[in-house]
Amino acid sequence: MIDHAIAELTPLIGVRHACAATGRAPASYYRAHPKQVGRQDVSPTIPEAGPADTSARESTQPRALSNAERARVLEVLNSQRFADMAPAQVYATLLDEGVYLCSESTMYRILREKNQTGDRRRQATHPPKVKPELVADQPNSVWSWDITKLHGPAKWTYYYLYVILDIYSRYVVGWMIASRESKTLAERLIAETIREQNIGGDQLTLHADRGSSMTSKPVALLLADLGVTRSHSRPHVSNDNPFSESQFKTMKYRPDFPGRFDSIEAARLHGKEFFDWYNFEHRHSGIGLHTAADVHYGRATEVRRRRGIVLDAAYAAHPERFVRNPPEPPALPTTTWINKPPAEEENPTP
Questions:
Q1: CATH class of 134-290
Q2: Which portions of the sequence form the region Disordered (predicted)?
Q3: I need a surface site. Which of 53, 267, 318, 337 has the fewest CB within 10 A?
């Protein structure tokens, strides 16, 4: 009889409260009715007053992308053209083509929701260094150069990639792949690059590490004859040449970079394809997501103006999607440093 009453009350107040109302121990009831364990054991509850459901509120935000728009963004990010590119690169490339889908941060958010962000290369951090201290405020004022090894077809065979880079524009002004590291070849490449870029006397500083080719007498004499200032990293401090190191890292972490090259001709062909991409297609985060060529040859201001037109149109169409301020294209830095001094040393008190 009591169990029958509990069975009738259970749908209304739950097993535990029904047992309490009838004086029956819950454990005894469960032993007699084992199928009830785990079923109908929670009393119906009245929702407590509290903050509104934020997920529901957020899902109806007027500035949010529609499901169709989000699907379109994901489709573009996963397309063959953009699958190997970071959202920042996709954002800048589309912007230059007059297309605005969403902000860069929204692209990251959509990828994160789909667990498609992937691993990001860990960036090394180093304590600030004070020497050498070089600053560039325009192209062709400070160049950085270095040599790296490329694996040949067999073990212990290498080709040598020489690269000269403008630190302000990130433009590779000269490069060469040779079968050996040679101070004579280095001298020739530097001379040809200076001539091609129309460098005048006392205009340029050339920075490098302390490798044998970099500190060689032929290179030193050439630079002295041309009025080019020499600068070298401190011994055993690789971060004194960060722009060359970063460029080599970009090259070797590209998806199409081979582990080995079958021949020096294959290495040179790959080099040409890479440096064409690096100079004319890759949007560099350090220069306002511009291409190196646009910055080096003075086209970045016009590119930024056109980007602004695209963003202004996007803001006019959906101002509710830009909460803080109207969007602006990334600005081009006014100066680029190798080992920028601390603020207190840069602006000493009188």
A1: alpha beta
A2: 33-65, 321-350
A3: 53
